[in-house]
Amino acid sequence: MPETFRKIHQITEPNEVIYFFLDPPIHDFTSVYEGNLCIHSKDEELSIPFSEIDLGSLVANLPYTIFEPKRSVLTWNIKSFLSYLRYHYRHGHVPQCNIIDLKYGSSYMGLRESSQPTSFKEALALSQSFITNNGWKQANQHVLLPLSLEVLPAIETKGLQDIAAGDVRYSWYEIEGQINGRLAAQKPSGRYLTVHSMDMVQKAKLRPRRPEASEKWMFLEFDYKNMEVMILHWLTNDKEIDAILDSGKDFYLTVADTCWPKGSEKYPADFEGRRVGKMTFLPAMYGESPESLHKRLQATPEFAAGILNNIREKFSKSEKWLANKQGELDENAIAEDYFGRKRSFTKEPHYKRRNFEIQSPAALVCLERLCCLHHALPRNIVIHIHDGYILTAQQQDVAKVAKIARDILESPTPLCPGLKLKTSLKVGSHLADMKPVDMR
User: Fold this and answer.
1) Alpha-carbon distance values, 161 to 145, 341, 385, 434 (Å)
2) DSSP state of 265
3) What does the angle CA 14 – CA 44 – CA 129 come to, to the nearest 5 degrees?
4) How confident is the model over 245-261, as a mean pLDDT?
5) How far is CA 2 from CA 6, 52, 412, in A?
6) Taking a C-beta distance cutoff of 8 angstroms, is the pair 71, 18 a contact?
7) Quick check: 140 and 340 in contact, CB under 8 A?
8) Which residues make beta-bridge pairs with 413?
9) How far apart are CA 102 and CA 77, in angstroms?
10) Contact call for residues 120 and 41 (beta carbons, < 8 A)
C-alpha cells in the first residue's frame, strides 16, 4: 500500500469520528486542485499535499478509510470535493458513512458567518450547535445530504455544449447560498454558466452534451405554478386562497378582478389583469408600500394604495399570519421558518423577513423534489433554477421523460402533506426557443 494511504489508515481508526476537509477549499472543480487534504481525529492531525495523491487510488480507498461506512465524518462543503472527483475521475462516489457537513448545517441554523474550522475541537463544537435540532435533521435527511453527496455533483459536472465557443459550460451551486434558502448559482469566471441570469444570446448557444451526436436532443423546462402562493396557502389555510384554487380560475387574474379599486379604470394601458395580480398579490403579503408599488406599476398613488389595501383585507388570514411572524423576531432579529431554518434580519428590510417565511419553505420543497427527480432521471437533469428544472432527452423520449418528471414534481412531498403542486412545461431544441407544451 502506498505510504500516503498507510498514513490515512493509521489516523482513521474504524468507527472513530474524524474531521475531513480541504485546505484551502475547492472553488473551481474544473481546475487542478493544489491544496491539502486534511484529516483530524481527536488526537492526531494529518495534512497531505493533494498533488501527491493518485486520484484513482484515492477513490478506491475512500470507502475503507475516510468514508468507512460505520464512521461519522465532520466535513466542510463536501459537495465541492465530490464534484471535483466526478469531473477529474469521472467517478460518482457517494459516501455511505454518516456525513455531517458543518458549512450547510451551521448556515441552516442561522450561523451564516461561521468560518471553516481549523481543528477537530472547533469542528466538533460547531457540529454540537445544530446536530440535535429536529428541523436540521429533517432538512438534512431529505435535502442537504442527497443534494451534496449525489444530486448536485452529478448536475454540476454534466455540462452543456457551447456551440459558439466550442467548449463545455458547467453549472455551479452553493447550498444554503441565499438568505431565503435557495441555491446560489453565480460563478462569474472560468467555464461556468450564470444559470440565474442567462440572456437569450447565451441560451441560444447551449446544446445537450451527449455522445450520441447523431440523435436529436431536446430541452424540457418544468416550472412550478404559483409555488409561493401554494406554500402560503398550506401554511395559513387561508379559505380565500383555497376558494380561488378550487375554482380552477387563474389565481392572479382573479386577484386582480376581485381586488381592483372601485372607481379605477379597468386595466391601465399596456397592462393585463393577470400581470397586475401577479405584480401585487405577493408584494402586498410581503408588506410593499403604496409608494413603492406606485413607482413599480407606474400607476396612480390612489390605485396603488387601493389595490394593496383590498388584497390585505380579502386575504386577511394570510396577512395577519405574516404580520405575526414579523412580530416574532427575537432580540437578536433571528427568524425561524416552518422547517426550523434560521436567518438573522438585523440589517434586512422588513419585507425580506416576511418573504423568508414563504420562500424558505418553498425552496426546501423545490430542492426535495429535485432530489427525487434525480433519483428517477439521473442522466437527464442539467440545470436547476429556483422552482424550475431543465432536463434533456432524445426527441423520441420526450413524452416518456416528461411524464416521469411531471409525476414526480407534482406528487406529494413528505415535507408538506397535502400540499398541491402543479407544473408547466416548455420544450425546445435550445433554451432560447422553448415553447409551452401540454402533455397531460
Assistant:
1) 29, 37, 19, 17
2) P
3) 80
4) 92
5) 6, 11, 50
6) yes
7) no
8) none
9) 8
10) yes
Q: Provide the 8-state DSSP code for 342.
A: E
C-beta of residue 348 within 8 angstroms of C-beta of residue 110: no
- Cα separation, 299 vs 436, in Å, equals 31
Contact 357, 282 (CB under 8 A): no
Q: Pick from 437, 439, 431: which is nearest to 217 by CA?
A: 431
Which SS3 state, helix, strand or coil, does residue 340 take?
A: coil
Query: Do the Cβ atoms of 120 and 19 come closer than 8 Å?
Result: yes
In angstroms, the Cα distances linking 76 to 21, 63, 166 are 6, 18, 34
What are 300's three cell numbers? 396612480
Q: Which grid cell is 408?
A: 414526480
Q: What percent of the chain has pLDDT over 90?
A: 75
pLDDT tens for 144-154 read 999 999 999 99
Structure letter (DSSP) for residue 26: P
Each residue's pLDDT tens digit, 194-231:
888 899 999 999 999 865 555 789 999 999 999 999 99
Q: How far apart are CA 140 and CA 134, in angstroms?
A: 10
Sign of CA dihedral 149, 155, 156, 158: positive
- Beta strands 206-208 and 160-162 are antiparallel
Residue 269's pLDDT band (boundaries 50, 70, 90)? low
Between the two ends of the chain, the Cα-to-Cα distance in Å is 57
CA distance 355 to 363: 12
Whether residue 24 is preceded by a cis peptide bond, meaning omega within 30 degrees of 0, is yes
DSSP label of 30: T
Retrieve residue 299's grid coordinates: 400607476
Each residue of 109-130: pLDDT tens digit? 999 888 999 999 999 999 999 9
Residue 105 confidence (pLDDT) above 60: yes
